[in-house]
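Protein 1 of 2
SEQ + STRUCT:
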Amino acid sequence: MDEAVSFFNSYLDADYAGNLAVRSESDEVLKERQIASRGFWHSTLNAPLSPGFGRPVGMPSEELARLAAKMNPVRRRLFLVAEYDDVEWGALYAGYIGGRGRTVQSYGGLLYAAGINGELKIIASYKEDIDKVPPPLRWCHSQGVEITLSGNPVAIRPLEVPTGRIAHKQDWEAFRNAGGDR
């Protein structure tokens, strides 16, 4: 579980560096940050994944300055990690991550990671299904493979309670109370 927590936090660090680069770095540096972010993903032709940051190449410095003035990047939080014993993937980790900007205190996504060639890689990304009224919180597939969980988590690591939306806090508390930490 420690490895999964470290992996998701490292990904969030790379995501933050990429979002900073969008507003303040050259195209070359932004490309390096995108490549670094992609290193956390396992993308295939049938299940594509891509980083959540970017901008048009060759943006004039005036436009870049306007973009920088509008953006206030904040590192996304890792609220909770759950481990599942999955038939297809073996150890499958779910990372509940914060949003960006005004939603940083709330869930902003759910990432699934599994071991690929001996390394953890993100294989799927989910967004909150806003058409479903919580509780419970429901998620809809966004990118990568579609995950079908066949059981309850075998381990849960609650890290930080989301405080931006009451439904997210309730979901986090239900998870925290559902199982032991490992």
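Protein 2 of 2
SEQ + STRUCT:
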Amino acid sequence: MEIALENVALHLEKYKLMTTPNHKHLITREMSNHFALGVSAGGSAIGFVLVRTRATISQANIIELKIEQKFAGSGLEKILLHTVENKLREKNYHTLTFDCAFHEGETATKEFLQPGEGWSDGELLSYIWITDLQGISRAEWVGKQRIPKDFELFSWDELSVSERKDIEAGYGQWYPENLSPLQEEHQMNASLSVGLRYRGNVIGWMIVQRAARNMVLFKTQFIREDYRKLGRGMLLIAEAIRVTSKIEGMAYGMFVMDKDNADMVRLANKHVAPYVIRRKMFYSFQKALM
């Protein structure tokens, strides 16, 4: 089989059935820190890899690696990975990471992410739960949440300019990078995402994305430390469930929980677990390029 490697951004029409609108946005936007390499045979796209680069720390991350099913396992994954690695080495990148999900109970490894190729053992980053959204929306705890005095729930599309600046200033101060509500904003749905204020100050958020026609992704949940023990995180979760469950045809809710976000994991095990349909785990693999 004769294959061709190419820049996906220059052949969008060829790869339109394999990529999503978000993929196209990432690789074609002005001053993008993403790139995609594709592999084709006979003029037809059969695979691609999408990479995010972070020049300030000499690190790159593979967002997605996709090969048509009938070609999976034929070595195309390694070809794409090696091409990416060489491209990054030319620009003096030091580290490449690959993040991917595995079903619960599935061995967290892939044939093209082996120690012999320089890859580390996978590190667990987060848990992914697919739930019955309509079922959980009828749970007693969702319906009985009441907003205490001085607290206010609001739709994220109502976030003011000054509040945004305050959140930007708090980056790495009172919330960690991986729980930022401002990351990948082009993917979030502000009208479905929920914020929480206390006496006029933003203290928490539940950031929501549309993952599919019938599924929402509850991606990032955070509450300031001073208010966690008061159970205020439950207000955010319940409100996000109420808002999204009202969308016609919305059947599933996907919860992503950072393994180190102990409060969210505890809440989920107590209140969300009874409505889980499928569980996955998200791992990160790393490779030194120098």
